[in-house]
């Protein structure tokens, strides 16, 4: 699908509309002409409409940080796939660890969201990752396998070919601690093997991003690894200069 390095920014709950416009104008000029990367940014919901207008016909795709699985209705505070599509989103981050652990999203809910996104033509970026105690207890593969099995439940091979998976160890998010490129690579291999075993998706057809304190200083080591197809960047994506350095690693 997107075989160039895929570099995605998740702004979380940062930046007002005016800050979004300022940041994206700077980013656009910093990455002008870059065609050997797939670039995506996910600003907060309130900024998506303006961001969509600004990024139209640019080399930066727009993504959302979440969405709900129903089409419309009495779901106060929620946002639908159609709302995201209308403002220009092509991607939606689903099952981010902050959604799972702060807002209590279950694998079942995430699975419904993944299915709705696919049905509507949005590309889901499904986040999976273990907590520190799970890693210390040797449970990494067990946790990831369960999140994949449940998050992708009852999908077809065709569906899975249209999904991006982001491996984001919870202990590495926003903490300054990065998984070593070797550790990340081995979990990425495990994810690619799982997608092959469950859905017959060949290793070179799946896209697996790494996320967790990615910075200009550690991007090269990560991207050198065979099974790392790109990165999902939180904190460092807020600065156009840092994010453009990551993009152009
Ligand atoms: C994220 O939120 O997806 C993330 C990886 O954050 P950070 O880069 O700040 O660790």
**Structural class computed from helices and strand pairing:** alpha/beta
Uncertain spans: none
| CATH class category name | Alpha Beta
Domains (count): 1
Silhouette: globular
- The helix count comes to 11
As for the CATH topology, it is: TIM Barrel
Radius of gyration: 17 Å
Q: Could you name the key traits of this structure?
A:
single chain, 249 residues, alpha/beta, TIM Barrel, 8-stranded parallel beta barrel, binds phosphoenolpyruvate
Short structural description:
The chain is built from eleven helices and eight strands. It is an alpha/beta fold. Strands 1-2-3-4-5-6-7-8 form an eight-stranded parallel barrel, surrounded by five helices.
What does this structure look like?
The protein has 249 residues and is an alpha/beta fold. It contains eleven helices and eight strands. Strand 1 (6-10), helix 1 (17-30) and strand 2 form a beta-alpha-beta unit. Helix 7 (140-151) packs across helix 9 (181-199). The chain is globular. Phosphoenolpyruvate (PEP) is lined by residues 10, 168, 173-174, 211-214, 232-236.
Question: How are the SSEs ordered, and which strands pair?
Answer:
Elements: E1 6-10, H1 17-30, E2 38-42, H2 45-55, E3 60-64, H3 81-86, E4 89-94, H4 97-101, H5 107-120, E5 123-128, H6 132-136, H7 140-151, H8 157-161, E6 164-167, H9 181-199, E7 207-211, H10 219-223, E8 230-233, H11 240-247
Parallel strand pairs: 1-2, 1-8, 2-3, 3-4, 4-5, 5-6, 6-7, 7-8
């Amino acid at each position: 699908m997107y075989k160039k390095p895929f570099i995605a920014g998740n702004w979380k709950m940062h930046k007002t509309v005016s800050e979004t416009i300022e940041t994206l104008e700077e980013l656009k000029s910093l990455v002008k002409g870059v065609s050997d990367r797939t670039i995506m940014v996910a600003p907060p919901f309130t900024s998506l409409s303006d961001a969509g207008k600004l990024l139209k016909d640019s080399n930066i795709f727009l993504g959302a940080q979440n969405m709900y699985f129903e089409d419309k209705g009495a779901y106060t505070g929620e946002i639908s796939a159609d709302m995201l599509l209308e403002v220009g989103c092509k991607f939606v981050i689903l099952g981010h660890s902050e959604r799972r652990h702060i807002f209590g999203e279950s694998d079942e809910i995430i699975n419904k969201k993944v299915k709705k996104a696919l049905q509507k033509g949005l590309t889901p970026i499904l986040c999976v990752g273990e907590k520190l105690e799970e890693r210390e207890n040797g449970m990494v593969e067990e946790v990831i396998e369960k999140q994949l099995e449940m998050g992708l439940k009852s999908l077809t091979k065709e569906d899975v070919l249209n999904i991006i998976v982001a491996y984001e160890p919870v202990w590495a998010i926003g903490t300054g601690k990065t998984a070593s490129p070797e550790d990340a690579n081995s979990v990425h291999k495990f994810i690619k093997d799982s997608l092959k075993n469950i859905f017959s998706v060949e290793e070179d057809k799946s896209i697996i991003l790494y996320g967790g304190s990615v910075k200009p200083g550690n991007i090269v080591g990560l991207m050198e690894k065979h099974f790392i197809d790109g990165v999902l960047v939180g904190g460092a994506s807020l600065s156009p200069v840092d994010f453009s350095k990551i993009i152009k690693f």
